[in-house]
Amino acid sequence: MKNILLKNVQHIDLKSGNIRTVDILYTQDGVIDTIAPEISPTTNCEIIEGEGNYALPGLINGHAHLFGSGKPMNLNISPKLLHLIYRLAQTRFGKNILLKQMKKHAQIELMSGVTTIRSVGEFFYQDVKLRDQINSGKIIGPSLFVSGFFLSTTDGHGAPFLALESDSPWEGRKNVRKNMKHGIDWIKICVTGGVTDAKRIGEAGALQFTEEEIIAICNEAHKNHRMVAAHVESTEGMRIALRGGVDTIEHGAVMDQEIINLFKKNPKSLRGHSSLIPTFTAAFPSMFLTKAELKLSDIVIENGKLVYQEMISGFKQAVESEIEIGMGNDASMSFVTHYDIWRELDHTVRFGHVSPLTILQHATLNNAKILGIEKHYGSLEVGKQADLILLKKNPLEDISALKSINQVIKNGQNIQLKPTKKWSMLDTLLDRI
Ligand SMILES: [Zn+2]
C-alpha cells in the first residue's frame, strides 16, 4: 500500500489554536501515520507539496438534509400536486432520481470542505443506501450518518411525507423499530412544529410530542445504542425533550436554569449529557431580507424571525453555560445550499459573538464527539482518518477563508474539486447580511 506525504503545511491544531509547519504522512486508505516537522519519505511514497497552505480537519455538518438543493422552495404547492410528487418519488424510478440528487448534493458538500455529514431526515431510506454506497467505496462522498424518516405526531412537523407518525409511547417505539430495521444510525424526532409547514404564527415552537412519548422513543433508541436528535424551536419544547432524554437539541431556543442543568447532566440521555446544534443559515434570511426578496409567505417569514431570535439567544446562553455545542446549517432548506457551509460559521462568529477558533471547534472536535465518532474523526492526529482541508488563508484570522477551499482530502484521497453550479441571485442576497 502506497503512503502519501503531505509536505510543509501550516497545521492548525484546533484544540489549542496553535499553528506549526509540519509534514503529514498518511496511508492511501486514509489513516494518519505521522505528523512531524520533517518526515523523510519512505519507499513507495507519493509526495504532495503543501507549502503555503493551512491544514485543518475536514468539517462535519452536524445538521443537514440531502434531498433538496437549497434553492428557495415554493411552499405554496397545492396538496394535490404534493401528493402526486410524493407518489412519483416512491416508485423505483422516483427513488433513483432522488438518490442521484442526494449523491450530487453530498459530493458538493465534500468539495466545500465537509468530509462528514449527519443527515437528519430523508425520504424512503435513500440516505441509508447512499451511506452504504459511499462506505463500500463504490462512490466518493463524505462519511454519512443517517436518520431515515423523521418521527412525528399525526400531522406534526414533516408529516405525512417526511415522517413516520405516532400518537402514543408504543406507536413511537414501533417507529423507532421501523427505522432501525432499515439500518439508520440516528433517530430524529420532531418535538415541536417547524417553520416550513407551520399554518399560523407561533406554531413553529408549539409542542407536538408529549414527554411520555419522548421518553419511550429515547428509551427504545438508546436500547439499540442509537442517539436521538430532537427538532425543537421553543423553551417548553426543549424542556420536555431534555427531560425525555434526547441527546441533541436541533435549532434551540431561550433557556432557563432547569434546561441548562439538563443539558449538562441528563440522566436519561445516552451519554449522560445533551448537546445543542444551532442552524442559523436556515433562519437568518427571514430575519434580514425583505418579503419581496424572500418570496415566502408571511407565516413562514414571521415564524422564521421568531425562531432566529430564540435560537441566537439560546446559543449565547449555551456558550456562557459551557454546554456542548455543535454546528450544522440545515442544508436543503430554502436559502441553504450545499456549497456554502462557510456561511454558518461566518454568521455564528459575527452574530453569535464567538471566535473563529471556537466555531471551528464546534464544527470539528465537538461535532465528532456529539456523533460519537471522535476516535476517528474531528482532528488531525495519528491513528485518525486523513480527512483534511487545505486553505490559502488563515481561517483563525478571517473565518470567511473557508469560502475558498484549496484542496479536500477524504480518507487519504485527493478530491478533485469541480466547479459547482451556484445561484448568484441567492448568493448576492446572502452576501448582504
Ligand atoms: Zn433540519
Tell me the radius of gyration. Answer: 21 Å
Tell me the CATH architecture of the largest domain.
Answer: Alpha-Beta Barrel
What global shape is seen? globular
Q: Tally the helices.
A: 13
User: Could you estimate the helical fraction of the residues in percent?
Assistant: 25-40%
Roughly what is the average pLDDT, rounded to an integer?
96
Query: Beta fraction of the residues?
Result: 15-25%
Report the CATH topology name of the largest domain. TIM Barrel
Low-confidence stretches: none
Major sheet summary line = 8 strands, mixed
CATH class of the largest domain: Alpha Beta
Number of domains: 2
- Kindly state the number of beta strands: 17
Bound molecules: zinc ion
Tell me the structural class: alpha/beta
Can you say what the CATH homologous superfamily of the largest domain is?
Metal-dependent hydrolases
InterPro entries: Amidohydro-rel, Metal-dep_hydrolase_composite, Metal_Hydrolase, Metallo-dep_Hydrolase, OTAase-like
Domain Amidohydrolase-related: 54-413
Protein name: Amidohydrolase-related domain-containing protein
GO molecular function: hydrolase activity, acting on carbon-nitrogen (but not peptide) bonds
Overview of this structure, please?
It is a single chain. With 433 residues, the chain is an alpha/beta fold. It contains 13 helices and 17 strands. It folds into 2 domains: 95 residues, Urease, subunit C, domain 1 (Roll), CATH 2.30.40.10; 313 residues, Metal-dependent hydrolases (TIM Barrel). Strands 1, 2, 3, 4, 5, 15, 16 and 17 form an 8-stranded mixed beta sheet that branches. A 4-stranded parallel beta sheet has the order 11-12-13-14. The mean pLDDT is 96. The site of zinc ion has 4 residues, from loops. Zinc ion binds next to loops. This is Amidohydrolase-related domain-containing protein. One of its GO terms (molecular function) is hydrolase activity, acting on carbon-nitrogen (but not peptide) bonds.
